[in-house]
Amino acid sequence: MEVVKKNFKETLPQVSASIEKADFLVIDAEFTGIINGRDVLVFDTPAEYYLRLLNGSTQFLLIQFGLCAFYYDEEKKMYMNDTYNFYLFPRGQPGPEKIFMCQSSSLDFLVAQGFDFNKLIRDGISYMTEPIETKLRDNIKERQKTYSKEKDPVNIPDEHKDFIEETCKNVRSFLDDNKSDEMEIDRCNSFVRLLIYQELKLRFKDEIIVETKILENKSRLLKVLRVKLDSDTKSHTTKRIEREWDEFEEAVGFSKVARMISQSEKLVVGHNMLLDVIHTLNHFFQPLTDDYKAFKEFTHCMFPRILDTKYMSSLPPFKEKVNSSVLPHLLQTLSEPPFALPNVGSYEGRGYSLTEAKLHEAGYDAYITGLCFLAMHSHLTRMRGEDTSRPDPNSAVLKPFLNKIFLAKTAHQDSPYMNFDGDDPSPSRDHVFHLTFPKEWMRNDINLLFSPYGPVMTQFVDDTHAWVALTRRDQARHVLRGLAASARVTVRPYHVQKGLKTSRSDDLEQLKRACNMTNVPRSRSQTVATNLPSPRVWSPPRTEKVSRVRANSISSPLQSPTKVTRKRTSSGVFQVDDSESPPPKKSELDQASEEALKKEKFVANGRRKASVTSGDETKEQKIIERFDSDSKINCVSAFKESDSWD
Amino acid sequence: MEVVKKNFKETLPQVSASIEKADFLVIDAEFTGIINGRDVLVFDTPAEYYLRLLNGSTQFLLIQFGLCAFYYDEEKKMYMNDTYNFYLFPRGQPGPEKIFMCQSSSLDFLVAQGFDFNKLIRDGISYMTEPIETKLRDNIKERQKTYSKEKDPVNIPDEHKDFIEETCKNVRSFLDDNKSDEMEIDRCNSFVRLLIYQELKLRFKDEIIVETKILENKSRLLKVLRVKLDSDTKSHTTKRIEREWDEFEEAVGFSKVARMISQSEKLVVGHNMLLDVIHTLNHFFQPLTDDYKAFKEFTHCMFPRILDTKYMSSLPPFKEKVNSSVLPHLLQTLSEPPFALPNVGSYEGRGYSLTEAKLHEAGYDAYITGLCFLAMHSHLTRMRGEDTSRPDPNSAVLKPFLNKIFLAKTAHQDSPYMNFDGDDPSPSRDHVFHLTFPKEWMRNDINLLFSPYGPVMTQFVDDTHAWVALTRRDQARHVLRGLAASARVTVRPYHVQKGLKTSRSDDLEQLKRACNMTNVPRSRSQTVATNLPSPRVWSPPRTEKVSRVRANSISSPLQSPTKVTRKRTSSGVFQVDDSESPPPKKSELDQASEEALKKEKFVANGRRKASVTSGDETKEQKIIERFDSDSKINCVSAFKESDSWD
Lengths: 646, 646
Description:
2 copies of one chain form a homodimer. By secondary structure, the first copy, chain A, is an alpha/beta fold. Chain A has 3 domains: 293 residues, Ribonuclease H-like superfamily/Ribonuclease H (Nucleotidyltransferase, domain 5, 2-Layer Sandwich), CATH 3.30.420; 84 residues, CATH 3.30.1370.50; 79 residues, Alpha-Beta Plaits, CATH 3.30.70.330. Helix content of chain A is 36%, strand content 14%. In chain A, strands 1, 2, 3, 4, 9, 10 and 11 form a 7-stranded mixed sheet that branches. Chains A and B meet through strand 5, helix 3, helix 4, helix 5 and helix 6 of A and strand 5, helix 3, helix 4, helix 5 and helix 6 of B. Chains A, B: It comes from Biston betularia.
């Protein structure tokens, strides 16, 4: 069911009922862009991953929210789905308008899927964070107290005096003629409208009511209404107050649904859902900050039970059989033996069925995510010889997957998830080194440098820095000694470079240093908020080490000048790379290492870096990368779903 | 005539012909937003004005470009118009995609005027700057050299071996069966597609051609084509090369039109055209830098004859008769005595007529701007007793208006234009002072402080700083002495605060200091360029004092945390304020001064600043300002065209 501004109020009770009766909820969102600036690196920790998304993704707008409620029909003995597609657009009155970013390729992609941007902008539902809502509420109350008070008059400049006089004369005639009950005054700019308003109130006092009429094309004119009863004026003020509160409620809009979902405490399922979660919290609850620990706690508090089907499909027994966990591919795989999709029904106009494939409509993607979840759950319970029908988030069978969100970019480096109910994995990085090398060096030079220790996998950070991972981890202890003498390079162990005391430290100050963070307040989408508690009685923990920084300007020191072409994947997040290419086996790395990792600044196909001579060419090569998706180097581990390499 | 991607190539010759035969051209553009961050202050110099727009406006996208060519029909003895509405959207392949900003109120406004965003995104014409075009061209040439070379193979991981084998078997059957000439392979992610491509080429060599097919919904699959003749393979490469150059030309797109306009050297007319000019240069020519002098020179070089009808209408003999110079109001005024609109014709489907009012369609706005220009020109020549028909940019009658662009925000402080062919006005500011005052002070306190010197006009910069202008300029010399003793405030003369040696200095270093600029490279819309000369043989002047900084990140140090709700005006730029409210006369300032200038952080209607006690409330009040457009303080000099104050 499509939900827009016009039908939002009347649909709200149905949404509430759907959430109420659901066994579990599935969410999916569409955005105006994926990532701006530098993407996640394969050796980023979960905390760094979070920060990079916070800095690079949250300036984009969430424009469609899909909510699919799966509820069990006891009679039919099957699941039914109520699915809602909400079009979301932040308006300027009375809520805060938004300045947000768009990525042209994302918009292009969405339009190709049939997304209607005109409907979005015209009919999108408003929303706001809780801090903004509170402020707005207070502000309206304050303002409404002053409605009866007199305002100081503004003097009428000479050049407008004639027009004002003429207008007053016209109003006098209008009142005396007694033919109609309203007249309009147009062709004035806003200043002149103020003067007229002021003058008419002065001269005609309670004989008239003057108000602004906003036409469909947004232009304005003044409407003068005859006051027939004394109660007209009074009720005018009352009506005005009522109208303002109605507009307020409308402006809060979709945030109510987000909070309903949260307060239900039901299992919330998604596919590759990290961005969905970040955007949901940031748009409808409270702006997120650099504090990773606080982010995890806040997420867990708002959504105490979450499950990521992309993570679920990456583990046995699904991993071996799932060739590609991109959502439509996953659905296809799970519809064939040894799996089976459940039969899920819906009432007319209330939910989806598989016959109406509408990929990348958020509601539909949520629906098929739910199908995949049920299929995988059934498979597991069947293997255990249990009843397969209804997933229970408290069950043992779901326990391994609960509250873990997939980290696509780092999954193949043993960092496959963020754990919202415990510690993140912190795999050994003893075989990983940070390398500083001369500008003219290429991948081959690095391979050569490390050749005594076996094959390596290199991820370039920039012109002169890279992460290098040994395939033969046993060789790690020889590296520092062996390369210490080199005059041309500097090699540092992973934990030293990251500023970690040990490889398992979760000292947030160190994490921030590692990300080169400064305590500069930064804003996502330019809305300002204070740290007010949410309705779920959660207060962000205050620690001395970490100061909560407030969002306030779009850029961030983290963003490097690298601009890379991004494309959407059908899972709805960003480029599918590591998660699509399996981890190379040790024996294959001899050849794979040259191509294995995307050099962050990319080199044009066949164009040797040696031909690049000046410092400016970093940027030039970045321009080139934008155009050149043929570069073979991209292919293996940084594979993009819809990239053309031929 | 509407021009989109599909008909752009075929329309280009017509556009060229229109430009060729035109007496003058009129331009107008629509954007995704107006200004982000702090707006221009009333005492900003033209250089500061430029910098503020550069920092606050150029991250938005120009999405529709209207070009109206007025050409004289000798037989009919009247003007005809050829008007083009170009929908513009930067695509990712092969050109650089864009990450750009949007202001929700601007989008809202445009949709209300009937703007079709789906058409924009789906069918918008691409474009790029010259530096990008050059790089792209080089890149394509480089890449095409490698098409015949072999690429190093990627090893096939175990989990894909079965699928690859099966696929190869299918292709073998396809070739042997000889039933059809092409087969498709789908349901692979991009990595698997690479493996298949590689393997097929290895095993089947010249028997087949393998290429990627992109479906309408942007998903990809592989197509295997049977090679029937030896020439098939060769022509495949040739066709590919041809296709890439076609795509390249398509990607350069609208930039060609912009350059045609420039190279014609014809008179280019606009209405309140500063933003149009800045965006045009930035999108289609070369990214602009902080160097104001270079900007003016570059503009003058690219467009040696420009005329701003808003500026023209602000001077005698129009000034007295024009109540509002907002474009549709100006048109209305010029259609009545003593003025008259010219009769301008058009051929079917080629231009506009007044019967089809389509305000805020860029082409239509350009058309009516042209009508206004002709009407004003006729009026002038009639007054001089000359022939009224055809404007000549070299004529004396147009000389006062030529190459001056209106500065709406500072016009009432005697700084009404930027002069692209000479010095900007630099009015006396001896009566203007920079005031530092205690946080709790309100406008009244400032009025009181200055009361010995007569009424003042105050523009707040932030919580503790403001510009204060004396109405009684003769009192200026007493101010410093009189207020020097005050412990609570600091008063500095204008030129001292701005760091100017004299009030007429144009030392750019000082201007930058005045703007608190740092040499941080900054990007608009995230495209990177180098300073390559344009085709009109113009090289940016290099001075030692000013280092040319390259655009590279969206934010800027200039942006303060102030967020103000912006709305569009029908002139298509930003809020109409000073230009709509006439300069207050001396006798009126007693009352007007309290309201005269918008306090930048705004105070809610009726809510006294005294109730604000903590430092955080600056931001709170900014939030409030977003909601509270009723504040009377806004009314006089900061009047917004479509603001509601009742």
